[in-house]
C-alpha cells in the first residue's frame, strides 16, 4: 500500500518542471537503483525498508528523469548491458511509474528536453544593460544618419534662410546701436534750445551758457567738447581732459571786488574776476554736472578763432538765408563732415542760436570718431563681418572688418580716409562702391528715424559668397550710408542653427538621458537583484545536490550589496554638501549674467547706497578694570542699542568687527521708505548713535567709579556712492556678506581725519542732507589723485520741512511701538527712548503713558 501511494504521488507530479542534469548523474542514479533492487530480492524486510527510503529520498521529478533516460536506452541500445539488469529496469519502470508514463506524456517530456538541450542556457553577455547600450547605439546611428540625410537634401534652403535671418539681425543691431549713439546729441541740443527760449535766460550771456552746458553735459557722456561762440568772437567751452570735465568761460574784469570762492551768491557771475591776465577762467565739474567753485578758479589762455571754426561757419555763413526760412521757436541743427581737430578725427553738431529774428551765435557739440570706431569694432567682434559708416562726401566716419581675407580695426589718425580707395581695393568693396554710385545713395535718398523699428536695407544681395545690406538715411540731420557685410557660414554652423537638426539633436539628447537614467537605476538596484536571485536559487536547490553550491555565495553577495549601498550613500552625502552653495551662487549672480557668462568666484552686486562706519575706541582698557564678564555685558548692550538704532531707521548692518576697536558698517538703499532718501536716514542715524554712545559712556563712568581714567571715544564717517556687496562664503545656516569699493575706502580715509566724537561726511552726502542738517566745510584732502571735500555734520536744522517729515515718521514708529509693548516696558525700550529724545530736542513734551 505504501508503494502504491508513492506511485500515485509520482503520477500526479510527473508534469512538473524538469531541471537539466548531466548524463553522468543519470547513470549514477540508475546503477544505485539496480543495486538496491537486487538487495531487496534477497531480503523482503529490507526491501520494504529500502522502498520507503527511496521514496522519501528521491522526489517524483527525479524518477521522471530516470524513466526518460531508461526509455532512451531501450530505444537506442540494449546490447551493452546484461539482460538481467535490463529486465530489472523494465520491471521497476512498469512497477513504479506506470500511471505516469503514457505515450502523450512521454512525447511532450522528450520534446521539452530536446529543446532545452538544443538551446541551452542564455549567453552570459545577454543582459538588460547590454541590451540598453546596444539600443542606444542603434538609435544614435539612426538619428545621426537621419540628420545628415535631411541636411544633404535640404541644406541649400536651410542655409539660405539661416544666413539671411542672421544677416538681417546683424543689420538691425547696427542700426539700433547707431541710433543709440546719435540720439544723446539730439537730447542735448533740444535741452539747450528749450532753455534759451525761457524768458529769464539771456542767450547773449556766457555765464548763462556756462550753467546750461554744465547742466546738460550729464545727458551725453560720449561728447568730447561743447562750444558756444558769438559775434564778438567770444567762446565758452566745456571739454573733457583726462577723464575730468572742465568749463572755460571768457574772463571779464569786474569793477567791484569779487567774493572769495567760499561765498557764492545766487547771482554769482562765472565770467567776472578781479583781474584777467589770461583769456579764460577755468572751473572743474563733478560727475553730476555741478560746478566746483569751492575748488578754486584757474586761469588759462584759449586759442580759438570763432569766426573760422568749422562748427561756427556751418551755420554763420548762411545766416541771412537760413533765419527767415526757420519757423518761429523751431530748432535748427546741422552736422558737419569729418575733419581733423588736434590730431584726431571729429565731427560737429551745430545749433543756431537766435533771439527773436536776430542772430546771436552758434552752439556746437564735438564728437570724436574714436568712440564710434570702438562701437563698430565691438559689434564686429561679436558677429564677424564688416560694418562701414560713410558721410555725404564718401568719407569714412567709422569702419571695422573681420573677414576671412581682410581685417580692418583702426582709422588713420593723420588724414581723412575715402571709401573704398583708402579702405580696401578688393573686388568685394569695389563692387559695393559701384552699387552706391549706380543707385545714387550718397546722401540723396534718406529715411527718418520714425522708421527705425521697421528699417529695411535699400540694397541687399550676395557678392562673392558674402551677404551685403546698404542703406542711406538721416539720423537727426546727420546723413550717413551704412554698409553691413556678413560672410557665408560653414556647415557646422548650419547644423547648430537649423530647426530640423535642433529637433533631432534634442530628441537624441532626451533619449540619451532616459537610457542613462535607466542604466543608473539598474546599477543602483543590481546588488539587490543579485541578492534576490541568489536566495531564490538557494530555495530551489534539489535535495540530490547534483548542482554544487558554495557555502559563502550568499555572504559574498551580501557584502557586495553593502559596498554598493555604501557607495550610493556617499554619493548622496557629497551631493548634499555641494548642492546648497551652487544654488546660492546661482541666485546671487542674478543680473550680472549679462556682464559675463563665466561663473564668478565671489558673486557680487553693485548699487548706489549710503554707508555709515561707526568706530568705538579705548574700551579694551575697560576690560582690565571691570573683568571679562562685565565687559562682555557692556559691549553686548552697546552693540544691541547701536544695531537697534540702525534697524529702526530702515538700515541694515553689513559687517561688525571687535578687534582693537568696535567697528560697525551699516548700509542704506532706496528700496525702503519713500518719505526720506537714504542719505537723510544715514545722517539721522549717525546723530542718534552719537547721542546714544555719549550717554552710555557717561553711565559707565558713573556706575564704575574705578574707570574714571578710562577714556572711551568714538567717531563716525558717512559717504554715499556705489558699493559692491559680495558673498564671501556660505554655511548650512547663513550666508556671509562683505562690502567693498571706492566708497568704503573713502570712509576709512574719513575716519583717519575724524576727531573724537565727530561725524564726517563726503560731498555727495553733504549735498543730499544740507537742507535738513547743519554741516560745515572741514578741509580738502587727496584721494586717488583727486581732491575730496570733507564736511562735518553738526545737528538738525529745526526750521526745515524735511526735519518735520523725519519726526512724523518717528511718531508713526512710536505709535506702532506702543502697540507692540506693554506700558511698563516702554521706558526701558531703546527705540522709544531715542524717539522721545528727538522730540524733546524739537521742543515737544513727551508723555510716556499717552
Automatic annotation (TrEMBL):
InterPro entries: Nucleotide_cyclase (IPR029787). Gene3D superfamilies: Nucleotide cyclase (3.30.70.1230). Keywords: Membrane, Transmembrane, Transmembrane helix. The chain crosses the membrane at residues 131-153, 503-525. Residues 16-27 have a biased composition (Polar residues). Residues 73-92 have a biased composition (Basic and acidic residues). The keyword Glycosyltransferase does not apply. Residues 38-47 have a biased composition (Basic residues). Residues 1-49, 71-99 are annotated as: Disordered. The keyword Membrane applies. Coiled coil: none annotated. Signal peptide: none annotated. Residues 1-15 have a biased composition (Low complexity). This is Guanylate cyclase domain-containing protein. The lineage of its organism: Eukaryota, Discoba, Heterolobosea, Tetramitia, Eutetramitia.
